[in-house]
Amino acid sequence: MDYQQKLAEKLTILNERGNGVLIRMNYIKKLCADPKLRPSILTDKAMEPAIKYINKKFPNIDFRGNIQHLTSIQRQKSEVLTATSSYYDSFMDVIEFRDHVYELLNTIDACQCFFDISVNFDFTKNYLDLIVTYTSVIITLSRIDDKKALVGMFNCAHEMTNGSSDPSYPRLGQMFVEYDHPWRKLTEEFGPHTRSVTTALLSLKMLYPRRNLPAEQWRSAQLLSLLSAPAAMLDPACCDTMACEYLSMEVMERWIIIGFLLCHSSLNSNQASQELWKMALRSGIYLILTRDEVLNIHKVSEDLFDSIKGYSKRVADIKECREHAIVNSGAMHRERRNFLRGALKELFKVLEDEPGLLGPKALFVFMALSFSRDEVLWLVRHSENMPKIKTPEDYIDNQMAELLFHMEKLRGLMRKHIHVVQRYHVQYLAQYDALVLNDTIQNMYVCPEEESVLMTSFVSTLSALSIKQVDNKEEFDFRALRLDWLRLQAYTSVNKAPLPLKDYPDLAKVMNMIQFHTRTVDSLEELLQETSDVSILCFYPRVFEKMFIQSSEEMTMKRYLMAFPSVCSHFGHCGHPLCPEEMDSMEKKSLRLCVTFLEQIAKQTSSVVLEICAEQRNLHDQLLPKHCAETISAARHRKQKKPVQKKGEVQKEKPGAESLRKDRTVATNVDKMHLMLTELCSSYSLCSDFIVFNHIVVPAEFLLSHLETRLSEIIVIMANYNQTTQEIARPSDLLAGIRAYTTNLHSLSSYVNVDVTRLVKSVLLQQTQPLDSRGAQTVTTIYTNWFLESLLRQASNSLIVHCPTMQCFVSQTTDNEPTFRAEEFSDITELQALAELLGPYGLKFLSENLMWHITSQVSELKKMVIENMDILVQMKNNFDKPEEMSNLKKRLTGGENVLKRMTIIGVILSFRSMAQNCLNDILQKHCPYLMGPIECLRDLISPETDIKVTLSVFELASAAGLPCDIDPALVAAIGSMQTDNTSIDEEYKLSRLLLVYIAVSLPTLALDPNSYYSREHGGHNNNIHCLATAINQLAAAMFTIQNQSVEQQLKEFLMIVEESPFLSQDMLESCFPYVLLRNAYREVYRSFVVTLG
User: Fold this and answer.
1) Which residue from 486, 508, 640, 829 has the least number of CB within 10 angstroms?
2) Which pLDDT score is estimated for 57?
3) What is the CA 532 to chain-centroid distance, rounded?
4) How many Cβ atoms are within 10 Å of 238's Cβ, its own excluded?
């Protein structure tokens, strides 16, 4: 034998090249067929006459005589060349590929090679693959409608640019013309190869029928079951044809259908060929050429044989097989899928429990994956092109998720325990396969030198293997050994070979087994890809999405839904270097599908989780104190005669009644939701993350994202804010609802591994900001608006009174029914709940809004001071002249307005002080060890401390809710009011005059009947008791900005001594004896009876 033929090397290279050319042709076909992606040169209106002329005259285009038709190409010849050159080169690749295939097939025929799938598996498989790939390339090429236009335009532009046609154009044009009817031409080409092709195909006559069995026979034979023979569980799974056991059925059917179409003469002369062909025709209606390019096998076969004399019987056979396929194949494949779902689940459970079995039973895994993949692909290609039948449900599988899920689990199990598989098979290769191979070689009566060298190298390579290599995590590479085995198959399969392989079946058996074992050691990922790759789903997005929707509607399938996004990780493996342009669109499509599925699963899961939380919140709400009034009332009167229940009145159930059941089998709504949640969360157990085109996808993050969005919306909804009616939920009720939600959300970690604490922190932290991450309003904004627009606005109109006694605001009794009771929203409990909800950030935002309202009042006060400046200056200078003061007072205007605005400022500051105190209480409870140092830092501040340092420390303390002598927020707000036009001296003057204005206006309060002191409230009904707070804090802020002594300026206002840290009782005593105040209080409280004991 001439070893220089290199049949093995050529088959390997041409198959790889052919796949690339096929994918390239398919890409060009899709590109030209899609209006959005179609080359601009073909859509240009100016090019239409040239394209029509080229298509009409192709390939003999007269470039000189009909120049008027080609004017548009003449004008843009360089652009045309650039736009069409890649397509021209791609079509040239087809010619080059065709030439090499012709040459190799002729060489193989000349060598009269022997083909048998069970003996020289790799040689036969590569040969049949090459034939099918070549045929697929030609068929796909013939389906490109614009190929003549693209090639013709390129050649026109080439001729116009270079003065001559491209040298390859005549051959390319001739090829296009020849393949206008591709099957007719292909059958002519393959006539001389009929013997070789038929021999190779007939070697499948035992394998294909054995693999193409109905599910009933699989079930009766307990196929793929490790439990059917417990005694043999540890025995290695092996047979004479290891690789044949997981060979794809789709691949075999493609070989048989296309092979007998090309070499159809054997169908009339060979009964075995005819039976094999009929069996393949009955298995389905469509075959995939590549991607989503399919072949309607019955139609193509019938059309071809109709045009050939003497094939009427074959046409009748085709029609009979088609009817059989339409009636029976759908049901047969449906039953196979049903069987495989159970078989894969059992296989996975056993192997997961005993991963050590992955070594001896690895073949079972690859068989299970291959069988399942075949059924998935069959359903996909037939669902997309479903024939008109009476039972369309056979082509719809709403349980596809389960099959894909178990396939993914088996793949994951093999990857997880790869070292188990490697350890087992390295020992098997070194301690068994090497010895058997050596004995087989020794028993051979003839062994030429070349073959001897190869087989000796096999033995030495396998004998050198050691378990330590696995323990040391060394990388194995047996590709050279497998290529040498393919070479040996080629050398020993030619006619008159010195060592004919067909005479040494034992050598073929042991080498085929060695080939499988080496692949499990160094190419496990490649084997998994070969047996379970379902990347075809990327090209059938409609079918893929439909499968997902059908599965998601089934309760029992929800636990398997994660298989759909996980399968998208396969899509990155189906590209080819010859068509890099395809990768971008595939990546986008894969990520879109993956994200769509994950979003849908996360949406379903989050909906169920939050429905359960809502249900639990309702139950928790029943236990709130506000609902116990009826129970208390009933308890107080239970000794009385029970009143007769009114007819039709339903007795109110007590909380907890929902847990009492007479029959546990009756499922409540909560039971059903928990079951659904369990099912959905089970799907997240498939994998924690996976990779889709170099993007790491973490399914749990999609769930957290959905929960974050929904929870934020729900919290705002629970606030129940109505801007029109100004209704809102009490802060304590909202806080109780949020706590009920978060408590139940934490139970989610029992179902799926997600960081619920991070989720809750993120959502609640966003609620302390004015807007959340989506730009929507938060409870901070809602409550800030409500307190400003409802409570404080009414307080400024004296409809609501600040009550120092109870530390809250109280609604006044009026003729009109109030929309809310202020005490229910502003007592210590509610403001502590508000502080808990809004936190320091939220209360800072609230303070900033309060300060804005204060500054607007201060601005108006300054305007009034400026209007009355002359009078106020005179009053300041003549304060000790009663008659002069009386006259000036009559000329002064707006005194009541000043007091009204100061009262509003006082009310706002009093509310802020209450909120700050409640924030302090909350922080003392949550972080006492942080609050201690802040308090110490505040207490260290003295009047001598630098004002910048003082304000910085006070800002820290104020953020923690601690009271400060000077309010830093008020200082910042008033400081921002100053403009470059006014000097500090002018501002100081205005501040002094404002205090004068307030002082001289105070006596007018005695005329207001609402100024009477209220014993119940500890203040006045017109909130004038808030004036002290306003004067103290406003003066402190203004004089701090103006670098003046606050104490010195406030000595004129000794009446606010209780509110001011800058004044003392001694100062008051020197001017106004405290005994007078004491007597006034005693007079007010005279009618109050206080009892002790």
Assistant:
1) 640
2) 82
3) 24
4) 15
Q: For 727, list phi and psi in degrees, rounded to 5.
A: -85, 150
**Helices 297-306 and 312-324, axial angle in degrees (round to 10):** 170
Sorting pLDDT into bands at 50, 70 and 90, what band is 376?
Answer: very high
Q: Which residues of 384-404 are buried (b: 16+ CB within 10 A; e: fewer)?
A: bebbeeeeeebbbbbbbbbbb
How many Å apart are CA 5 and CA 497, to the nearest integer? 13
Top pLDDT among 1007 and 407 is at 407
Report the 10 Å Cβ neighbour count for 851: 23
Identify residue 1091 by its one-letter amino acid code.
T
For β-strands 808-811 and 800-803, DSSP reports them as antiparallel
3-state SS, one letter per residue, for 64-127: CCCHHHHHHHHHCHHHHHHHHHHHHHHHHHHHHHHHHHHHHHHHHHHHCCCCCCCCCHHHHHHH
Q: What are phi and psi of 168, to 5 degrees?
A: -90, -5
- State CA 731 to chain mean position distance: 34
Q: Which amino acid is at 336?
A: R
Quickly tell me which residue has 């690789």 as its tokens. Answer: 243
> What is the token pair recorded at 781?
């904004």
Please give the helix or strand (H or E) that residue 289 lies within, else none.
Answer: strand 286-290
DSSP-assigned states of every residue in 602-650: HHHHHHHHHHHHHHHHHHHHHTSGGG-HHHHHHHHTTTSPPPPPPTTPP
Q: Let me know: does 182 contact 142? Beta carbons within 8 Å.
A: yes
CA distances 47 to 50, 51, 87, 150, Å, are 5, 6, 17, 12
- For residue 684, the SS3 value is coil
pLDDT per residue over 877-930, tens digit each? Answer: 887 788 888 888 888 888 889 999 999 999 999 999 999 999 999 999 999 999
DSSP line for 736-774: HHHHHHHHHHGGGGGTS---HHHHHHHHHHHHTSSB-TT
* Interatomic CA distance for residues 977 and 986, integer angstroms: 13
Q: Kindly state the tokens that stand for 720.
A: 């129940």
Instruction: Give yes or no for a contact between 979 and 859, defined as CB atoms under 8 angstroms apart.
Output: no
Is residue 697 helix, strand or coil? strand
Q: Which residues pair with 295 in a beta bridge?
A: 287
Task: Give the Cα separation of 849 and 781 in Å (integer).
Answer: 10
Contact by Cβ (8 Å): 961, 920: yes
Distance (Å, whole) CA 169 – CA 88: 9
Rounded Cα gap, residues 426 and 418, in angstroms: 12
Q: What are phi and psi of 743, to 5 degrees?
A: -60, -45
Q: How far is CA 397 from CA 271, 321, 335, in A?
A: 37, 24, 11
pTM listed for this prediction = 0.87
Helix orientation angle between 524-532 and 400-416, rounded to the nearest 10 degrees: 170
Chain centroid offset of residue 392 CA: 33
Rounded distance, CA 637 to CA 651, Å? 17
Q: pLDDT tens across 307-351, in order?
A: 888 889 999 999 999 999 999 999 999 999 999 999 999 999 999
The Cα 105–Cα 1017 span in angstroms is: 107
Cα gap 851→889, rounded to integer Å: 31
Torsion angle, alpha carbons of 100, 106, 110, 112, to 10: 100
